[in-house]
Amino acid sequence: MPICSRRPGPPAPRAPRHAPSGRGDGGKGAPVKTILVTGANRGIGRLAAAELLRRGDRVILTARNPDRAAALRSELSAEIASGRAQVRPLDLASFASVRGLSAELIADGERLDAIVHNAGTLSPPPVRTITEDGIEQTLQIHAVAPWLLSTLLLPALARPSRLVFLGSSLHLPNSRGVPVRFSFDDPFLVEGYHPERAYKNAKLAQLWVVREWERRHGAEGVHADDLCPGFVPITASANTRGFMRVLLRRVMPIMPFATSPQAAARLEADWAERDPTIPGGAYFDGGTPTQPSEDARDDDTARSFWALLEAWAPV
Ligand SMILES: NC(=O)c1ccc[n+]([C@@H]2O[C@H](COP(=O)([O-])OP(=O)(O)OC[C@H]3O[C@@H](n4cnc5c(N)ncnc54)[C@H](OP(=O)(O)O)[C@@H]3O)[C@@H](O)[C@H]2O)c1
């Protein structure tokens, strides 16, 4: 069960809505930002996409399941007809799907102001699962595929722009449950697989991606941040059953440490719109700048993980 220690704080500084980006029609209420949100068919991502649309942004929503994508298209038919929304397929458990989406967006001449790497599996499989690309599934969905998507979309990213990764304080070594333990000798957890560990390791790996991304691409204006949205029990309950489901849906939401899906979505939208000139490479727990774990702050480890990414998913 994912959790962040802090509930959402004050909103992030936003760029002026009519920034001199050369896009939009420049008129009152014209959309300035084009924002890609992954895993936007349900949960926090769906609400964040709705919030961004409400604020006047142009949003590209992705969904991995064709039926859910079709349902989303019909929900958003008015926004799609006006060109303010698009629904595109994306399954992060498949590099072919990642490559397909990025090729399409580049061919269509899209210019992205932000990518929100929201998609995730809050309940990783009980048994270790390897994707068609040979990577442990949870690590691929949260860290490897988002890195590949961002890298392939570099030519489509505006300067300045921002990547927002949805992280979790569960990457911390003292978080409750099965401890985080990422080994470069066994990144796919042949030994000691547990769904909680897979999730925590993936969120730690995401922080390395953010750190090394900022070091490599921050100077050219493509910044990356890691944002823990708060503990959102309602969306975290999606793939749970029985007692855990009742706990997450009925009891946890009224606890003082819980965050509502709407508040988490507003935070996600704030970060997508955050002034893109502000340097990144930071971790925000509930929107508050926070030190990630010591492992997550290690530059050499971040570089080593980047080398693995390049080997696993050659660009
Ligand atoms: N909820 C929390 O308390 C909490 C706390 C900290 C961090 N987070 C992070 O916040 C993000 C959103 O969480 P949430 O609570 O909104 O989750 P959610 O309700 O379970 O939604 C997850 C979304 O990700 C999509 N997804 C899952 N696997 C995918 C794949 N292989 N390829 C593409 N999309 C995939 C899902 O699509 P389908 O509908 O097809 O499954 C769904 O749209 C996640 O990254 C999560 O780790 C959540």
Structure description:
- The radius of gyration is 18 Å and the shape is globular.
- The protein has one domain: NAD(P)-binding Rossmann-like Domain (Rossmann fold, 3-Layer(aba) Sandwich).
- The longest helix has 23 residues.
- The chain has an 8-stranded mixed β-sheet with strand order 3-2-1-4-5-6-7-8, sandwiched between helices.
- Helix 1 crosses helix 9, helix 5 packs parallel to helix 6 and helix 6 crosses helix 10.
- It contains 10 helices and 8 strands.
- The chain is α/β, with parallel strands linked by helices and 315 residues long.
- NADP nicotinamide-adenine-dinucleotide phosphate binds next to helix 1 and helix 7.
- Keywords: Oxidoreductase.
Secondary structure layout plus pairing:
Layout lengths: L33 E4 L5 H12 L3 E6 L2 H10 L1 H5 L3 E5 L5 H13 L4 E6 L19 H16 L4 E10 L28 H23 L4 E7 L4 H4 L5 H10 L9 H12 L10 E3 L2 E2 L9 H14 L3
Parallel strand pairs: 1-2, 1-4, 2-3, 4-5, 5-6, 6-7
Antiparallel strand pairs: 7-8
Helix pairs in contact: 1-9, 4-5, 5-6, 6-10
The site of NADP nicotinamide-adenine-dinucleotide phosphate (NAP) has 31 residues, from helix 1 and helix 7.
The level 1 CATH classification is Alpha Beta
Number of strands: 8
Structural class: alpha/beta
Helicity level? 25-40%
Summed up, the helix count is 10
Task: Please mark out the parts with pLDDT under 50 across 5 or more consecutive residues, or reply none.
Answer: 18-28
Cα-to-Cα separation, first versus last residue: 33 Å
Q: Biggest sheet, open or closed, and with what strands and sense? A: 8 strands, mixed
Query: Which CATH architecture would you pick?
Result: 3-Layer(aba) Sandwich
